[in-house]
Design brief:
Elements lengths: L2 H6 L9 E4 L5 E3 H17 L7 E4 L5 H12 L3 E4 L6 H11 L3 E4 L4 H9 L9 E4 L7 H6 L16 E6 L9 E5 H14 L7 E4 L6 H14 L2 E4 L5 H7 L5 E4 L1 H8 L14 E4 L6 H11 L3 E7 L3 E5 L13 E2 L4 E5 L13 E6 L6 E2 L3 H6 L7 E9 L5 E6 L4 E3 L2 E3 L1 H8 L7 E9 L3 E9 L6 H9 L10 E4 L13 H7 L11
Parallel strand pairs: 1-10, 3-4, 3-5, 5-6, 9-10, 9-11, 11-12, 12-13, 24-25
Antiparallel strand pairs: 1-2, 7-8, 8-18, 13-14, 14-15, 16-17, 17-19, 19-20, 21-22, 23-24
Helix pairs in contact: 2-3, 4-5, 7-8, 10-11
């Protein structure tokens, strides 16, 4: 038994109903998709991929890339998706760390990837590079075309690793989170049930497929439910508006929703038939949540997940979706708040370290046993690195990352608390609060604002002083046209800290 494939794809293998709707409006049914998965699995096996060996993929978002994901797992391999924005120099670390038997990349990168694989040593001289471009062409599909459309799955247990997903690496080298067959299967099953996905669903899929959200949440949930996906290469407002009337559901990052709200065509009539909107990967501003509800009549279901865990919590599909909160622990998953320093479990409404335990939690970091041990408690909870608090009725609020905590004059300052106030100021679209070196306080609290016409520095500081204790008050304000973000829309505060590290020493140029 191949645990993930047999639970996820096999039940739909002979169905002729539509699985994928492609950008040119052509379709791929479940039977054809399964045949492609089988061809890819057979090809990988013929290239020496044995159970537990890695297949790295830095590919465009085309449907054969999805077949590569499931084909790798069906062949018993471990899928390693790589961010398509990485340069060859950046990809070198991941290739050297994962040591894949096969790598799939765009044709222009084939020579570089071939050199990378050859540099891994002589133990496996038969490592291979295949190609796949944005038109769905390349040596991967060409070779797969010659393989049989039937392939018997390589047996893999629930505890075997199915994928290695690298963290974003904002504080040092990225870590490879090992996700098992059961991690992926159990999370897909819980989300399918909680969000009530069925064969009647058509998901608007505009997310990248090298990340948990687009690959393991959106794709796995849809395959498991037997529904259909409108498979957009990337998010474009015009295309999303064209496709929304054909959809019943949408998963996105906050940027998707703010861009839709900025377009007058996005209204209640356009989405009257929609069933659910889900947001994640970055915080959704409470104002966006409220505006969306007023404009469309729909609530955005915000949820909380990590590379290492998949999804941990979600606002309810039926019930109160609270703006600024990421909902309740999903069935079978435990969430608790602990003191950062002592590890003492805290009561509701206290801010501390978010810890989670459940079948969704990864098995450890690839080749980093010491880091794995460090990030788990003695009773098996994963220490997420996020700060948050639980309400009396157990709704979770994310306050920020532990590494983003500001200690000014010996007192803890939680950036989210200050950002929520700043975001309410007229003319401010978004804010980011960080701590930078200060000669007297250790760290000084500063804010970076975006907006059409935000108030000047003196006005902002004065407005905040009315609502915040002295140690939390802002000492400098800076302005930018936009905040730096990673590929999933998260604000990169590490970059802001680097840019503004001398804020109390010199003037900072825009």
């Amino acid at each position: 038994m191949n645990h993930l494939i047999d639970q996820l794809l096999t039940p739909h293998a002979d169905r002729d109903s539509v699985f994928l709707i492609l950008p040119d409006d052509t379709t791929v049914d479940y039977r054809r998709f399964t045949q492609r998965v089988n061809q890819v699995a057979g090809l990988l096996a013929s290239l020496g991929v044995e159970p537990g060996e890695r297949v790295a993929a830095q590919t465009p978002k085309v449907w054969t890339a999805l077949a590569l994901y499931l084909g790798t797992i069906k062949a018993g391999g471990v899928f390693v998706p790589l961010n398509t924005d990485y340069t060859l120099d950046e990809a070198r670390y991941f290739v050297e760390n994962a040591e894949p038997q096969v790598a799939v990349c765009q044709p222009d990168d084939a020579e570089g990837f071939t050199a990378l694989l050859k540099s891994l040593g002589s133990s496996r001289v038969d490592r291979r590079v295949l190609t796949l471009n944005s038109a769905g062409e390349g040596s991967l599909p060409d070779a797969a075309d010659k393989c049989p459309t039937c392939y018997e799955s390589v047996p893999r247990s629930p505890q075997d690793v199915a994928a290695i997903l690298y963290t974003s690496g904002t504080t040092g080298r990225s870590k490879g989170a090992m996700l098992t067959h059961d991690n992926l299967w159990s999370n897909a099953k819980v989300l399918k049930d909680c969000w009530q996905f069925t064969q009647q669903d058509v998901l608007l899929h505009a997310l990248p497929i090298f990340h948990t959200h687009g690959l393991f949440v959106a794709t796995n949930v849809l395959v498991l439910s037997g529904g259909s996906m409108i498979f957009m290469p990337r998010f474009r407002v015009d295309e999303a508006i064209r496709q929304l009337p054909k959809s019943t559901s949408m998963m996105g990052v906050p940027t998707f929703y703010t861009r839709l709200l900025a377009d007058s065509r996005f209204d209640q009539d356009l989405v009257r038939h929609m069933r659910i909107f889900v947001s994640g990967s970055a915080p959704l501003l409470a104002e966006t949540h409220r505006t969306f509800r007023q404009r469309t009549g729909h609530q955005i279901v915000e949820r909380y997940g990590l590379t290492e865990t998949g999804m941990n919590t979600s606002n309810p599909y039926q019930g109160e979706c609270r703006a600024g909160m990421v909902g309740l622990a999903l069935p079978g998953i435990e969430v608790r708040i602990a003191a950062v320093d002592s590890g003492e479990i805290l009561s509701p409404d206290n801010i501390g370290s978010i810890q989670v335990r459940g079948p969704n939690v990864f098995s450890g970091y690839w080749r980093m046993p010491e880091k794995t041990s460090e990030d788990f408690t003695k009773d098996g909870f994963f220490v997420t690195g996020d700060l948050g608090r639980l309400s009396e009725d157990l709704y979770l609020t994310i306050v920020g990352r532990n590494k983003d905590l500001i200690i000014s004059g010996g007192y803890n300052v939680y950036p989210k608390e200050v950002e929520l106030l700043l975001d309410c100021l007229p003319g401010v679209d978004e804010s980011a609060v960080i701590g930078v070196p200060h000669p007297d306080f250790g760290e000084g609290v500063i804010a970076v604002l975006t907006g059409t016409a935000p108030p000047d520095e003196e006005t902002v500081i004065a407005a905040m002083s009315e609502h915040l204790a002295r140690f939390k008050q802002l000492k400098r304000i800076f302005y930018r046209s936009e905040l730096p973000r990673n590929s999933m829309g998260k604000v990169q505060k590490n970059r802001l800290r680097k840019w503004y590290k001398d804020a109390f020493l010199t003037e900072i140029a825009e």
